[in-house]
Design brief:
mainly alpha, 2 domains, elongated
């Protein structure tokens, strides 16, 4: 029966072999893909690597800040109320006091 060290050594050798085989096969696959892209005139958009649709860009636009306190803390008015605003409201202030 093989010892632990022998098995670890064998694993290391097999990983090295696997990496070498992967590198050789990868070069062949890349060449084949490039040939197909040229043959069929495919673009990045055809393959799903192009620009995002307009709807996605719209969702990532920056939301303007609507509330600010004297310490410079801000909140857009979306999502959970931040702690600084919750504490201020609990101490008797009005949310309108923080509107920009």
């Amino acid at each position: 029966m093989a010892t632990y060290q022998e098995i670890v050594q064998k694993i290391s050798e097999l990983q090295k072999q696997a990496e070498e085989i992967k590198a050789r096969e990868q070069a062949t696959v890349i060449a084949d893909i490039r040939e197909k892209i040229e043959q069929y005139g495919l673009t990045a958009d055809d393959l799903g690597f192009g620009t995002k649709p307009a709807a996605s860009k719209k969702a990532t636009r920056k939301v303007p800040v609507r509330y600010r306190d004297s310490a410079g803390n801000t909140w857009t008015g979306r999502g959970k109320r931040p702690g600084w605003l919750t504490q201020a409201l609990a101490s008797g202030k009005n949310i309108d006091d923080f509107l920009i």
